[in-house]
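Hey, can you fold this?
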Amino acid sequence: MPEYVEQLIVFFERGGPVLVGILCVSTLLWILILERYCFLYFTYPKRLRSIIQRWQQRSDKSSWHALRLREGLSAEINLALQSYLTPIQTITQILPLLGLLGTVTGMIAIFDVITVFGTGNARGMADGIGRALLPTTAGLTTAIAGLYFSANLRHRAKVERQRAQDQLNISE
């Protein structure tokens, strides 16, 4: 087995089971973030062109029915842009709490060592401290990155929504 794989296994053993949970949740977060960027750069422009073409092909653009249709098209765009943004934001908020759970489990491990061996077992206490600090660091680090990308995706969705509404209004 390659050395870096062994080091990775040791790292996750030191961090405890909460660190594995943080890895799984972080992986889900990054999958959702990547999906949103792929959507914004590849799928959304095609969908927007299709919606704008449907609107431009209409001869009647000023009747009550046409205005409701335009509102529906705008809502369709908004729904597509907002998809997965709430789960991304929620996961970003959950990650520090998982890190805190890691802190608590690490502190419990430290207290177990103190209960059994007293304060004389420095190695056992150091393992507990590692179990407390690694998940906390991982949860906070991933959450900070998630905050940036969540805010960036929300901003991009807002800009694209406004641009799409402008295009629907101009083509009257």
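Oh, and this one too while you're at it.
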Amino acid sequence: MTEYAPPDPARPHELTREAVLGRFLRAHRERLAPAEVGLAPGRRRRTPGLRREELAQLAGLSATWVTWLEQGRPVALSARALASLAGALRLSRAERAYLFELAGRRDPMQAQDEHAPAAVLASVEAINGPAYLLDRQWSALAWNAAAADLFVGWLDPASEDRNLLRSMFLSPGLQALVEDWPHRAARLVSEFRAHSIRHADDPPMRALVEGLIAQSPVFRADWLSQDVEERQGGRRGFQHPLRGLLHFEQLTLVPAAAPGLTLVMLMPA
């Protein structure tokens, strides 16, 4: 059996992801004072922070596992165990996201974080051209007047379903609006497949896809094609019933304050 050799901290460029994770955990453990988590300072502490055994107890984990994690060993932790560590260490939102990214796990709390901050909602109204904000399932949370005027069959006052994917395949008004609809619809499905993979098992995501497979033969064929594309900007054409053919350049952004949401803006081409 080969003896475990810890990574050399003097060569940070050679550190593995596990080693970086271990150093991150140790640094945050050592900076967390016992009083902050309701523990007595005690005697003979080598550092002012928590001991490994104390962190393990707070997180409900084995002290051996905490030790191995800090040593950079390839220990596979579940998302639930990582969440316990994040809570025990009092990690901030950014720190928690960094922890899960290092561990290659999906944060179970992320699926619950779907609210749109007031500043993000206000930005939609502040944009001159058509703009809208999508949630994880690509339902519109907010849109401005220009978007309501443009997107007949989806965001106009007469439409009831605000989900972009469902409207693209089930709304005759939106299908007539979108230039080269078969190509754009297929592209949208391949983009959604790439977007949704991390949340494919979420009940709302599964219900959306399964419902469209049952309701739209075109969506079913596009979904079963297994095509995957990144969501990109570019030229978009619309055959508006009142204003004729319109072209825009699309820009898609992910707000830093709400990484589960998508902000889309259309600028005159």
